[in-house]
Specification:
Layout: H1 3-31, H2 34-41, H3 45-49, H4 55-79, H5 87-95, H6 100-118, H7 120-147, E1 150-152, H8 156-176, H9 185-197, E2 199-201
Antiparallel strand pairs: 1-2
Helix pairs in contact: 1-2, 1-4, 1-6, 4-5, 4-7, 5-9, 6-7, 7-8, 8-9
Length: 206
């Protein structure tokens, strides 16, 4: 492969991802065409197809970027546990933080999930990306419980699925009724008690 295109590839993909993020936010997944994304990025269709096969591939690249931001945010919250008066509440509040970028991502990912449900091959691809993100969440849950002096009594993979479901369901309700429910309210109110029932204190020697 020529050296020039190889060196430019990161810049090209960054421009495509930025353009896709803005276009998806404005038009949704179905309403965004490859042509419009390329035009917004100032690139040709050839540049697109040299990096991605389909619009779905572009979405999954954005998925992975968003997933990394989520993991980075939660990792920081777990790392700062010792600095918080109420460490579990601090983590759950960080998990429920919703800015405009998070709101746009939620709208896009919800639309894409419906698309995936209708298309089995896409659903399998989405499930694989979800699985990789869930592995990171499982690791963070294990760290969190360990820092709290507890150990799980349930499958952490299932616990990760449940906490994700609570987060996404709460966010749905909050976006529909923002004056009635804060994004983190359900998690902060109920998950601490729930975590006590799915974990136990680690016995200390002495």
């Amino acid at each position: 492969m020529p050296k020039g295109p190889t060196k430019r590839r990161p810049q090209t993909t960054a421009r495509l991802l930025h353009a896709a993020q803005e276009t998806f936010a404005e038009r949704g997944f179905y309403g965004s065409s490859i042509e419009v994304i390329c035009e917004r990025a100032g690139l040709t269709r050839g540049a697109f197809y040299s990096n991605y096969r389909t619009k779905e591939d572009l979405f999954f690249a954005l998925f992975d970027l968003h997933a990394q931001r989520v993991i980075d945010r939660l990792t920081q919250a777990v790392d700062e546990l010792d600095l918080a008066d109420d460490p579990l509440r601090a983590v759950l509040t960080r998990m429920g933080t919703v800015d405009e970028a998070e709101r746009r991502w939620y709208l896009l990912s919800t639309e894409f999930t419906l698309h995936a449900i209708r298309h089995p091959d896409t659903a399998r691809a989405l499930a694989e990306h979800d699985r990789r993100l869930r592995e990171e969440i499982v690791h963070l849950l294990a760290q969190l419980l360990d820092r709290l002096g507890r150990r799980p009594t349930v499958d952490l993979n299932l616990l990760a699925r449940l906490t994700t479901a609570v987060h996404e369901g709460s966010l749905t309700q909050s976006l529909v009724e923002p004056d009635q429910l804060a994004p983190e309210q359900l998690a902060v109110t109920f998950l601490p008690t729930f975590l006590d029932t799915v974990s136990e204190p680690v016995a200390t020697e002495g």
